[in-house]
Amino acid sequence: MELLNLFITSLIPVVKVLLVIAVGLFLATERIDLLGANARHHLNNLVFYVFFPALIGCSLADTITIENLATLWFMPVNIFISCIIGSALGWILVKITRTPRHLKGLVIACSSAANLGNMLLIILPAICEQSSSPFGDSSTCSAYGEAYASLSLAIQAIYVWSILYFIMRTSANCEVEEIKANDCTIIVKTSGQTTEILSETCAEPLLTSNGCSGDNIYQVDLPQIRDEGNEKISTFGKIKQCFMTVIRSKSLKMIFAPSTIAAIVGFIVGIVSPIRNALVGDSAPVHVIYSSIELIGEAGIPSITLIVGANLLKGLKGSGVGASLIVGIIVIRNILLPVCGIVVVKTANYLGVVDSDSFYQFTLLLQYAIPPAMNIGTISQMLGTGESEFSVLMLWNYVVAAFSLTLWTAFYMWLVT
């Protein structure tokens, strides 16, 4: 009977997520067209630059203190471990299914990166607010749930926009197409909207190394140092040019996205007592500033959930993704990773590196059972490849997650309590 009550408690927040996703899907249909491509683009910018940074900053400032930092250090480690396990399983799936080169990065990304911030920001507070929740006082539980979800979102954003971005960009550059005409072979590389002829020959086609070989995973463009005449550039000058190239790179700008900056600011406000006392709390002198930012941040959760539903519309139209690839990612995300999460968290608890708080352990476990991150779709749009494939993978993963996430949530609550 206890497990049944936990199942009902875990079902309600998942149903809430699915209902809002269904509304977003409905609003994106051609008949309604309130969340068409342009509307999604503008709403996504609002979420990315305004709503989520406000929500993350306020959540962390309200709950993170110098005292509880010692108990949260394992959360970034746990996310990193889950990404490593997911990437390894995704690489195995790529080898088994013989995935096309330009989709290998997409498969690894879907297997490793979870939708931690968006889903956890809805699920954790919703579970806390249930009358049958096993995690104590609802207000305290919800506050910590938002902080855990905000921290997870910031950490995941760094991983997605650094490691996964490079992997997917390298994979997208390997989209090679062979065109045969008049007994000749023309090898063409397509990347986004550009097309480049790599070789054109009637004998043996040549494919030069363009970062597409399996041995060359990462490609770094270093600045060219010119030495004209007797002009000599010192070692310090070379280091400075390399440093400026890295600083101006698009990838670094993505790592320090608004949500990441907001997380840093939230940490500073929460840790520095004078700033915290001035902003946070009903009796704070400038509490109105904090309240206004918090009010803006409350629009982030429903907005991003509507966008998730609208983005799933492409998946209904189908694409060339094989059934084996879809099933493989579903198995990784809904069976293998949640089981690995139990092993990791329980081992960490046995070694004494994880706090005994049941809600904290539950959050660590739940990070392994969340569907793939929607940021992967943003990267696919930027690179101009894999968008329809990603939509199909997301559609089936979220359909299966409606059942698997409920079951794992109920089991995790039973396990930690």
TrEMBL record:
It is a multi-pass membrane protein. The chain crosses the membrane at residues 6-26, 46-66, 72-94, 106-127, 147-167, 254-275, 295-313, 325-345, 395-415. GO terms for biological process: auxin-activated signaling pathway; endoplasmic reticulum to cytosol auxin transport. It holds the Pfam family Mem_trans. One of its GO terms (cellular component) is endoplasmic reticulum membrane. It is found in: Endoplasmic reticulum membrane. It comes from the Eukaryota. Keywords: Auxin signaling pathway, Endoplasmic reticulum, Membrane, Transmembrane, Transmembrane helix, Transport. InterPro entries: Mem_transp_PIN-like (IPR004776), PILS1/3/4/5/7 (IPR045033). Belongs to the auxin efflux carrier (TC 2.A.69.2) family. Involved in cellular auxin homeostasis by regulating auxin metabolism. Regulates intracellular auxin accumulation at the endoplasmic reticulum and thus auxin availability for nuclear auxin signaling. This is Protein PIN-LIKES 3-like. It comes from Durio zibethinus. The lineage of its organism: Eukaryota, Viridiplantae, Streptophyta, Embryophyta, Tracheophyta.
